[in-house]
Amino acid sequence: MAPGGGVCKDVIESHPKTLKYDVATTKTDKSVTRIATGVSGKHGMQSTNGVHELLECPVCSTLMYPPIHQCPNGHTLCSNCKLRVHNCCPTCRLEMGNIRCLALEKVAESLELSCRHQDLGCHDIFPYYSKLKHEQSCRFRPYNCPYAGSECSVTGDIPYLVSHLKDDHNVDMHDGCTFNHRYVKSNPHEVENATWMLTVFNCYGRQFCLHFEAFQLGMAPVYISFLRFMGEDSEAKKFSYSLEVGGYGRKFTWQGVPRSIRDSHRKVRDSQDGLVIPRNMALFFSGGDRQELKLRVSGRIWKEQ
Predict the structure, then answer these.
(1) Of 11, 74, 179, 189, which residue is 20 to 30 A from 157 by alpha carbon distance?
(2) DSSP summary character for residue 93
């Protein structure tokens, strides 16, 4: 037994494969290192001395970031897994203590790796400790499905998501930069059920998501309509759009810039960045006995010069 190391009685045998750094490496991660050559390891890091294995946490199998801990026998572990195994080394069952593996942290500083989204088009190379920060905002990272009616976990590039919305969510697809949509609901008082619709427009060779839904704004039931751009925010800012709803000689209008689908549906809705219509006004526009919602929302999309 190594000096100063107590034996742990219980060791957790299974652990969630997550890190607070969120750096789970997939089989498609084409990571490389410029300081070694040879046969590619299972993370795609070319190495002759097993550096890639040294930097892999033995519990969650992801790359380790400081602080990297080691037990008295030298077995290393990431900080999250150190907590999960209750400070007990999963390899030799000695108490981990608070020993930092400074040598391994120094080795990591010398590595330069490719982005994990290399297969999606990112070919930049980054120092080991900068790679994670880049990947969190990489413009080639997959987009989340913009469908707001369920907790859809599908991700992918734009062409894939367009097909996914059409085939799996039965979303209406339209060509053109102008629209005139009619929204009907027999019981407009069911705000809690979040009446909503999504339509995708193909305009200027790009795709836009038109949202319409009911939600509770404080104590007031309202309807909101807004546009999201299927692409990056820098591209979304090249476009503008307008929305209009009305009746009986009155109308509401809105003009704005579409938000990127990088911003979640809920984030855009809660920021009220769109055409917000109080329910009483919506029912007035609907006419009749005010017991049925019949709104017509028109609008257009244009590209700024």
Answers:
(1) 179
(2) -
* Bridge partners (DSSP) listed for residue 259: 228
Residue-range domains of the chain with CATH: 1-140 (3.30.40.10), 143-303 (2.60.210.10)
b/e per residue 167-176 (b: at least 16 CB within 10 A) = eebebeeeee
Residue 49 DSSP label: S
Q: What are phi and psi of 65, to 5 degrees?
A: -125, 155
d(CA 162, CA 2): 59
Phi–psi pair at 20, nearest 5 degrees = -65, -20
Q: Compute how many other C-beta atoms are within 10 angstroms of the C-beta atom of residue 67.
A: 14
Task: Tell me the pLDDT of the chain averaged across its residues.
Answer: 79
Per-residue confidence (pLDDT) for residue 281, from 0 to 100: 87
Average pLDDT over residues 76-86: 89
Mean pLDDT value across residues 144-159: 86
DSSP code, position 94: B
Residue 134 and residue 124 in contact, taking contact as beta carbons nearer than 8 Å: yes
The per-residue pLDDT for range 179-222, each reduced to its tens digit, is 998 887 766 666 554 557 889 999 999 999 999 988 888 888 88
Task: State the Cα angle at 14 between 8 and 19, rounded to 5°.
Answer: 100
What is the token pair recorded at 81? 């897994």
Reply yes or no: is the peptide bond before residue 67 cis, omega within 30 of 0.
yes
pTM above 0.85, yes or no: no
**pLDDT over 90 (residue 165):** yes
